[in-house]
Amino acid sequence: MSEKLIQGKTIYEWKKEYSLMNKIISTEEVLWTNSRYGKFEDAIKKISLSEEDVKDAEERLKRFAPYIAKVFPETEKTNGIIESPIVKIPNMQRKIEEIYNKEMLGQLLLKCDSHLAISGSIKARGGIYEVLKHAEDLAIENNMIALEDDYSIIDSDKFREFFSKYSIAVGSTGNLGLSIGIMSAQLGFKVYVHMSADAKQWKKDLLRSKGVTVIEYQSDYSKAVEEGRKQAQSDLNMYFIDDENSTNLFLGYAVAAYRLKKQLEEINVVVDQEHPLFVYLPCGVGGGPGGVTFGLKLVFKDNVHCFFAEPTHSPCMVIGLMTGMHDKVSVQDFGIDNITDADGLAVGRPSGFVGKTLENLISGSYTVKDEQLYVLLSVLSDSEDIQLEPSALAGIHGSIQLFKDDAGQRYIENNNLKDKMKNASHIVWATGGSMVPKDVMEVYYKKGKELSSTSL
Ligand SMILES: *Cc1c(COP(=O)(O)O)cnc(C)c1O
């Protein structure tokens, strides 16, 4: 019998080479730590993007702030800057320690991108940034605006008419489409959102209500992206937002780190050599967690440790990083189905750009079962009265796995962090949730309650 080869190797050979591969293929939970993880000063030399690029993105968002404040009144109180709160969640920390029967050293915090204005997910960073960047490029090329202008003039029929000659296309599992659709439609662009089968109905309905064209597929995210890319190739006035490769998306996400630094100072959370920071980031294709990680590394260097989180059925980034194959392999190649309720993370093939850029800066990556996400959802709601969508709970799991899993304990020892853990801060990046309709959230919550009483 001839066996299928994946990049020249049989499944048996892959399993022999990587001790975690068997568990990953069996969709068991794993915590992988990165053997290529290195010092920031060495890693950054190999990366073509720099702090200057992130600062440039930050400045662009400041230029657009007067416009954003005008057209999205919910951003008035932050003067048009789209930023989320960070909160300490001690009740949740105690609950987790109880449930997992393990002590978590340090303090637990939640970065509430779930409550970002305009689109209620981390995509309100990268997605909106790239649309604004494209709009600015077009407006400058056509002498409609200058960098010194007050950008609130963009809220006018003149600009809407101008942008209506152009269109924007994107492939998405839901939230990226939501942020790009809402922002582009507001500016006046024609927008086409290619949605994978995972996308929730309410996300499609909301976009259609804003005049966005939603094209639905029976297949997964990779197909939706491919179709969006194809559509844009045949139209010179159509701009494709490439979630798999875009440096603009990446830089839009990265800006978060500079703002987080200020927020942490305001609540007296210290990050330095004696006070390590751990950050847990839900990962789909990798752009969001990757961009945030890049920014955090620029700001906190070796004092920050970033872990990515994926569903056990969509472990594309952990496979890509572990094998070094990045976007050359998909989870389906290994017989994993990429079917998960965590729609924001339902991606079978990772971004090669993100994996290669950050291969020496990501500390590790772990997987979590859907059932755990629901349980954590209901526990967070009960303990802190914060409601998130299932994808956004993937981060929390890591904060306790670091202590429960041997690989996590080895990471702490190998990085000489053992005696510093009591001073550590753990930031869980809550990537989405505030726009979930009440009745849908109620179903999630009930599911979590039921699962808590049975499985744990
Ligand atoms: C998109 C998304 C992510 C992950 O971002 P990627 O850029 O796809 O890796 C995480 N959580 C939620 C809720 C998302 O929508």
Automatic annotation (TrEMBL):
Superkingdom classification of source: Bacteria
Record protein name field: Probable D-serine dehydratase
Co-factor(s): pyridoxal 5'-phosphate
Family, similarity comment: Belongs to the serine/threonine dehydratase family. DsdA subfamily.
Gene3D superfamilies, per database record: 3.40.50.1100
Tryptophan synthase beta chain-like PALP domain span: 79-401
Lyase found in the keyword field: yes
Biological process, per Gene Ontology: D-serine catabolic process; isoleucine biosynthetic process
Reaction equation(s) it catalyzes: D-serine = pyruvate + NH4(+)
Swiss-Prot/TrEMBL keywords: Lyase, Pyridoxal phosphate
EC code(s) of this entry: 4.3.1.18
Cited InterPro entries: D_Ser_am_lyase, Ser/Thr_Dehydratase, Ser/Thr_deHydtase_PyrdxlP-BS, TrpB-like_PALP, TrpB-like_PALP_sf
Residue positions where N6-(pyridoxal phosphate)lysine is found in the record: 123
GO molecular function: D-serine ammonia-lyase activity; hydro-lyase activity; pyridoxal phosphate binding
UniProt keyword Nucleus, yes or no: no
PANTHER family given in the database record: D-SERINE DEHYDRATASE, THREONINE DEHYDRATASE, MITOCHONDRIAL-RELATED
